[in-house]
Design a protein that fits this description.
The chain is mostly helical. The chain contains six helices and no strands. It has one domain: Four Helix Bundle (Hemerythrin (Met), subunit A). Helix 1 runs antiparallel to helix 6 and helix 2 packs across helix 3.
Amino acid sequence: MNKERLIKIIEDMQECIVDINECLELLATRKDDKLIIKLSKSSLRQLFVSFHTILEDLCSIVLKEIKKYKIGITLHDSLIILKENGIINEETYVFLEKSRLLRNRISHRYKEPKHEELIEHILTYNNKFEEIVKIAKAYLRD
């Protein structure tokens, strides 16, 4: 396993999560500052997409480690394999699938979610973001 790459992925994920939470805090506390709200909403979308790009890198490392990696595998298929191999549980799988679909709607600009939908999703599953980091860190110890 490329531990240096995994360390970078973990650092990037942690930074992304901190930034997402900062955006949520600004959106909750600076309701009268239109510019801050506008920038925070835009940043939140981009950070959410970035988290999933990092997630794809993590999935490829884990799939290689368990000898299930295939060139061109989709994130959807990767998540199924991770669930089937006990790396993620059903609840985490549901979170990641819902997140993946939201990310696609943002990235591909079809039926783009409203900011409120994205914020609700992030708040509902906030603890799951850190769970992904814990899964990644478990591979550092192996």
